[in-house]
Structure formats: C-alpha cells, structure tokens
Predict the 3D structure of the following.
Amino acid sequence: MEPITIGAALTLEHVPTYRDWLIEGERDLEIQDYHQTELLLGDWSDHVAKVKTALDGFTGRLGIHGPFWNAPIDSNDPEFRPLITKRFMTGVEICAALGATQMVVHSPFKTWDHFNSFNYPPRTKGRSARSEHIEKVHGVLGGVVRRAEQEGVTLVIENIEDIDPRARRELAESFDSPNVRVSIDTGHAHYAHGATGAPPVDYFVADAGAQLAHVHLQDADGYADRHWAPGQGTILWHSVFKALAQLPHMGTETAPHLVLELRDASDISAAMTYLEGQGLAR
C-alpha cells in the first residue's frame, strides 16, 4: 500500500505557518473560519481576500468548513428554515469567491433519531422515518445544492453522531447530484463506535465507497471528540488507510480530500511523523 498524501484543516491564523508545506506537497486544504456566525453575517469579502493573499502560489484542492452553529439542515420550522438556507447560500458564495470546490456540512442524524426511529410513527402512512427526515433536509438544502452546482461546489455531509453510516450515504444519494457527497470524520466515527455501538471507522469508509469525497483525520479515545493527532488515541489507523486505499476512486481526480483536523495545529508535525513512520501517509 502506497503512502497517501494528506493535507490539513486550518484557520487563516495558521495558514502562513504551513503554507510552504501545503504548496510543496500540493496538499488538500480546508479553511475552517467560515462556520463562525459573526463572519457569515458580516462583510466576509475582506477575510476571503486575506486567505487568497496567504495562499498565493497554492495549487492544491481547496475547501471550507460551512456553517453549523444553530443551523440544522433538517429544520422544518417555517420561520427558521429560510434563515438556515440563507446561511448555507452564503457559504457557497464564499466558496465561489475563494475558489474552493468543497463545503463541509454537518449530518442531521442524531443518536436519539437512531434509537427512536421506530418509536414514533411517520406522519404519512407508508413512509419511513428516514424518508421523512431526508425530505426535511431537502427543504433546507434543495436550493443550496442547485446553487452549488452552478458554482462548481460540492457539499460533503460529515458524520457527527451518526451510528448507521448508510443513512448519510442515502441522504447524499437522494439529491441525485454529483455535488452532494459524503464526508467522514474519523474521530466522530470512533466516538460513535465506542459510545453508541456504531461500526468501526474503516466500516464507515467502506460503506461510503465512491460517495466519499472528504475525510477529517483526527484521533480519539472512543469516548469524546478529542481531535488528537493520529497516534495519540486508539483508532486503528492501518485499517482506516487500508479502507481508503481500496476506494474505487482513490488516486483519481475525484479522490477524497484528506485533511488533518486537529484541536492544536501545532500537532500537525507529530501527526505526520507518526503517519509517515507507519508508512501510511506522506
């Protein structure tokens, strides 16, 4: 198995520190500032200009982390839903201005949903709880997806509390659009595995298959969302990278963006030392 090239998820503050590393390796980069409500509601154009200046010479693949604070993509509240849609439209506009081709959005599937899916009957006879849940997401993101298609931006849906990896894949597929795909956060999957009985991380990768377009690489202990450097927790990284290597599109232009998403950006060096030492990444 050949080592896989990985990049990082960074705020603008940390981009200058890792700029040369990113450029020399043609690594994937995710800018994380754009989930901040105050930035999304203000004049974000100045921030975009600063990012573009900091990334002068960067030729790797670029994405952003989209909104998630108080912006559930499964809201069916008629008063709040247009505001949430507008928030994600802003995210797509930022991608277009920045030249980013991906935006991470958070999964709507909660632990409660999983354990209570048969406890409350669907509102419409003959429907399933999941199909009604998916319909709510379309109510929020339908127009956003159409705008993303126009701008060449792909929305990638990241697991948060997800127990069943199929649910998020089916949600992505329900849009019937190449601009909606799946994201995996390894630490979130490991938390769900340890705390709620979800499958292990490599199962999440295998289930996503060709739908997988983005991965947050972070280590954890199976109890909480740690965002440690790989090697500091208990994720079985060889199984994760083996599953990644077996994806049908790995090594092609559509291979998933792979980025370290660490609580402390200074841990990137330790993460790379570990992954390179294991022959997994470069």
Q: What stands out?
A: The chain has a mean pLDDT of 96.
